[in-house]
Each structure stands twice: as structure tokens, then as C-alpha cells.
Amino acid sequence: MKKALPILPVIIAYFFVLLFCYAGISKMLDFENFQVQLAQSPLLSAFAGLISYSVIIVELIIVLLLCIKSTRLIGLYLSLGIMISFTVYIYLILNYSDFVPCSCGGILEKLGWTEHMIFNIVCVLIAFAGIYILEQQKRRKLNRTLICTGAGSLISVGMVIALFLSSENIIKKENNFTRRFLLHPIIEGKALDLGINSYYFAGVDDGKIYLGNSTAPLILTSVDTALMKSSAMKIRLDKSDYNYRNLQVQVSGSYYYLYDGSVPVIYRGALGDSLAQTISYRDAYFTQLVVRDSGKFAIRTQSRQNQQYMLGTLDLNGTPKLKLQPTILEKQIDGVFDSDGKLIESWGAKQLIYTYSYRNQFLVMDHDLGIVKKFNTIDTTTRAKIETRQLSNGNHKMTAPPLLVNKMVTGNGQLLFIQSNLMGKYESAKAWKSSAIVDVYRTDRQEYVGSFYIPNRKENAISHMLATDKYLYVLIGNELIRYHFRMPL
């Protein structure tokens, strides 16, 4: 052990050499994307240009210092400092920012932000171990080592906190509107533990809730509305040799539909029958789909020319099958992110609703995409607050943290439920951290009905919701929870 101890700092040094070489070179090879990712950060957006160059230069300087024996200790101190900075940065992003940007590129891109922070903490401990051993070899006192590492750590933490406090893009969420909270509109009822957190709502009928699973897309799960019994069916496809990217399931009437708009393909099967037959292949590419009836669909797609979003209808028995409506979604900035939103069908009503994500508006349409009404939410964001950039490969990316207005929607009859992302006047920041707020609107006239809270469970927030005549079903973490409406819709 004593013989191995002197070479441990060398091993640690070359570990960081490999880490920073890989990180620096991968950033240089994809520099345009790296700059855009920095610009998306709520902490770094205002300084993205300077930091994009500085981080690469500092990482390569550290590599050089670590490779030279006489400067190796300085290199380890700098490694410790930069890893502490990265760790504090991730902590602030996870705890004080609503918008979480993309992770870094390369191998570490596969890590989530929490796993990335754990990796960084391990690197901090490794760097400190290398510093301690080298300082002991130079016969320096422990107090001196602790003071130096402590001072370096404080400087690193201070720099990141200074960026946090001075950032122009830490969005102040309180807006100039006041919510009206309804008096106990929902009452929590039964909860069912589903075991995993990758479910989403695929449909509903009088006696069952249908769930899809993003990690097992060929599994259709049904749960009775009393949340007492559940069953799962493995879907078989008549043809499955496609390169799927986002296979989803939806239930409508007595059929289920499996689809992936990037192929594009649509399958249909009868409920209770595991075999799904191909009913559409390469008729239309789409990013969202709503089933109108067994052979008719409403879709959201993108223009081949400029990538802008548009709505359309797909009628498998029509001529032509695809009819695009490029004027329904209104462009404000780029026609992509500014018109992003969610297309849904209101359960129990023959109407389609498109809710914009970044502005205070939703559209009510008939099944042929004829606009019935345009309504506004109580938020004051009439124009999307986003900054975008088109990369050299034609893709559009955010270049600043966006102001997300509407996060999640569900409709039933003539009511629309929107999970809001913005805090109104006089609302408790503590309540916002522990709950989600749902605003309720009429879809037959401009009317804000009121709002209510849905509390988090075990620090998990709501991920999906579905409204029926009597109940509001929500997915939070591993649980399916049923809330009873105090007054039926």
C-alpha cells in the first residue's frame, strides 16, 4: 500500500487529463451546439459567448499543467475548483431553475442531471485525495492543505453564485394577474401504485382508464375506474421492422391505435385483441395525433421547407388523404417554438383544442379543424418570450431559457384544465414548490372558472392528468390517483 501511494496522484492526474481532454475536444468538435446549450442555461445565457471559449481553454490548460510534474499540484487544485463549480452549477439548476437545459455532449450526455452531479462530487473527492497526497509528500502541514482547498472551493462557489445572482435569465415567475382559488373543487380519493413512473394516459371509457408506457410501448394497461383491478396486454404488430423513435398508443371507441409519426405508421387493433394491423404507412409525417374516428385523424406536423408547425387532417378514405391547414397556428417569431403546444380532444365533446405552450392562448376547433373560438388564459404573456437559432444542419434550438406558460392540458365537455407554469400575485412560493396549480377555463366562451392545487407526493410532481365527468385522474411518480369533483362536470 505504501509503495502504491506515491503513484496515486499520477493516476489521479491522468484521470483528469483524460476527462478534460475528452470534454474539451468534444466541445470543440460540436462547438455550435455547445454554445447553444450554454445559451439555454438560466445561469449562463447572458455570458454564453465568453464562457463557451473560456471553459475549453481552462480545461486544456489544466490538462497541460497535469502532464508536467512540477505543475501537477496546481493542476489538481484547478481540477478541484472547476469540478466544484460544475457541481454547484448543477445544484442551482436543479433547485432554483424551472427550465433545465440539455446536458453536456459526449458520453456524459447519457447521464441525467442528478447522476451528473453525483459524478462531479466523486471527481471532487478524487481531486482532493490527489492534492492531499502530494501535499503530504512535500511535508506540508494539513492545516495549510485545508486552508488552500477551502479558499479555492469558496472562490469556485462564489463565482457560480455571482453568475446566478447576476443572470438576466432567472425568470421572475410572478405575473400581473390574480387567481381565484375554488373552494375544495376536488377531493382526493383512491391511489394505485403502478410500480414505475413511465405511464401516460391513452384513453378512457365508461368503466376503464387506459395507460400507455413510454418505456414499454407495446404494453397497453387498463385499470377500472375504481382503481381496484388492472390488466396488461402485449400488442402484436402485423409488421414491425421499422426504426421507431416514439411509439405511442391511444384508445378511442372500441379500438386502440399505435403510431409513430417519424416512420410514419399507424396501427389499429380491437380492444381485447392483441393483434394490431397497419392502417396507414407513409401517408403523413406528424409530431402529434388525435383520433377522430376509426379512419380519420387530426395531426400536427412540420413544413418540409421551414420546419414550422402546422395542423392538418388525415382521412384514410379521403382524396386526398392529407389536408394541411398552415394558417391555423400563428407564427410570432420562428414558427416552431413560438407555435409549440398540445393538440387534444376534449373528452365527451366533439371538439379539438390546441393550447400554446409559450403564450396565453388556446384554440377551440371542430373535428375538421375549423376554428370555433380563440380564447386567452389569465396570464399576460401574449407574445412568446423565447429566443431561437437555426443551426447549420437546419435544426432550430432555444438560445435562452423560455418562459413556459402552459405545461399540461386535459379537457372534458366544455371545460379545459391547464397546469400553469406561472405564479400569480400574492401566491405562496412555498405552495408552488410543493404543488402544481391547475387553472380551469370554459371552451364555449371566454371565462376563467378558477384554480386549484394538486399536491406533490413524496417530492414527485404531476406528470399527466385526465378529466372525466366525475373524476380527475393524475399520474404522480409511480401512482395513479383519483380525485373526485365536488360537483360533476
Q: What is the gist of this entry?
A:
With 489 residues, this protein is of the alpha+beta class.
Distance between the first and last residues' Cα = 73 Å
Shape: elongated
Helical/strand content category: alpha+beta
Q: What is the topology, as strand order, of the major beta sheet?
A: 6-10-9-8-7
Strand content: 25-35%
Helix content: 25-40%
Mean pLDDT: 86
Question: What's the number of extended β-strand segments?
Answer: 27
Rg over C-alpha atoms, rounded to the nearest angstrom: 26 Å
Largest sheet: 5 strands, mixed
**pLDDT under 50 segments (min length 5)?**
168-174
Q: What is the count of helical runs?
A: 7
